[in-house]
Amino acid sequence: MSEAEATTSTTDSMEPEKNTEDCLEPEAKRRKTAAIQDEKKYRLEERLGGILCCAVCLDLPKAAVYQCSNGHLMCAGCFTHVLADARLRDETSTCPTCRVEISKTSATRNLAVENAVSELPSECQFCNKQFPRNSLEKHEDEECEDRISGCKYHRIGCPWRGPVHERAQHEKECGHPHKSGAEVMEALEILDQQLIEERKLYKTIFELLGYDKITFNDIQLKPYRTDDFVHRLFYESSRFATFNNQWVVKAKISDNQKDPTQSSERDMTFQLILKSKTSTPLSLSYIVLRGPVGDVKINPRVYNFDFTEQETETPYEHFPLPDTAECNRLLAAKTINFRLIMFLASK
To answer: Residues near 81 by Cβ (< 8 Å), separated by ≥ 6?
Structure first.
């Protein structure tokens, strides 16, 4: 091999190493990037978020914060869920972290943590900008230009949904206002059906208020269990007198589930029982409402049943709660309070 060839070969073999060095980031840039990552990792609000989070769901509480006697934190939703689970299992409720006994009387609100959490920044789900948690809800509901909105012609069938800053342009171009009556009838029929159901409920209630025999009782349900179903929780009221008869209300949790403790979805069913003997049929209508003592959230509806000498118990009806969270909140309490209004049709 000649000297020129050897020189060329040596030069070619060294070129890749030169290119590799050129591709590497400068040391100063690497140090700056690492510093930014460390700053984000050790930012005060990030560290506080890990300290002040709920011990159950590991998320920052959105409302009330409860703590056990050892100071472990729980958000309001998880706190009521822990109490409800213990009630269903017939066990003493304990802190998920230290297993110390907790209850509505022993656990306390931590106002300092609530105030601190409300000032921590949180990211808007629409525009991804950060705002203090105490103002984030107002921003997302009223101020954010990227929040999701619907077309003002949705009542006649327009399905458009998009950022609120695009709404005006869409409404200028929306074709639904120019459709014929026949084309928008399907959407209007759905709205009419919803309105009919609401009017039917109001009309029924107004008709019942015209009955001669109307009474109400403030009911308190207390929990009890049977030997056959270890995980089954039942409720029963004391006897109360109405229309010269004795009555009782019974309730149970998640009747369609084998073990309610294994499910996050829960509901409550109840029945009205006539304890007295009656020789004449009783055509009864009744409504469950929030009473002056309890704070239960109820979607009212009217129930009807004809009591006779043979038929003394109504079928179990769904207690008109809005969701599972409200059911857990009731389970966490020692008793359930509501108002029962009863209407007796004259024969």
So the answer is: 56, 328, 332
Average pLDDT, the chain: 83
User: How many Cβ atoms are within 10 Å of 188's Cβ, its own excluded?
Assistant: 13
169 pLDDT more than 90? yes
Integer Cα distance of 91 and 233 in angstroms? 12
Phi-psi region of 335 (alpha: psi -120 to 50; beta: other; left: phi over 0): beta
Task: Could you list the beta-strand ranges (E) of 60-192.
Answer: 65-67, 73-75, 108-109, 121-123, 130-132, 148-150, 161-163
Residue 257 scores a pLDDT above 70: no
Asked if residue 226 lies in contact with residue 234, where contact means CB atoms within 8 angstroms, the answer is: yes
Query: What amino acid is encoded at 212 in this protein?
Result: D
Q: Which residues are CB-contacts of 135 (< 8 A; sequence separation ≥ 6)? A: none
Could you give the 3-state DSSP secondary structure of residue 270? strand
**Radius of gyration for the chain, computed over Cα atoms and rounded to the nearest angstrom:** 32
Angle of helix 44-52 relative to helix 111-119, nearest 10 degrees, comes to 140
Token code pair at residue 223 = 């929990």
Tell me the Ramachandran region of residue 180: left when phi exceeds 0, alpha when psi lies from -120 to 50, beta otherwise.
Answer: beta
> What CA–CA distance (Å, rounded) separates 296 from 105?
19
Q: pLDDT at position 8, please?
A: 47
pTM, two decimals, is 0.60
- 313-336 b/e with 16+ CB inside 10 Å = b? ebeebebbbeebebbbbbbbbeeb
pLDDT digits (tens, 9 = 90+) for 146-157: 999 999 888 888
Identify any residues that bridge with 150 across adjacent strands, giving them in sequence order.
Answer: 161
Which two three-digit tokens encode residue 178? 């120019």
The Cα–Cα gap between 80 and 332 comes to: 5
d(CA 305, CA 301): 14
Judged by DSSP in three states, 221 sits in strand
Alpha-carbon distances, residue 214 vs 3, 40, 277, 322 (angstroms): 117, 65, 20, 26
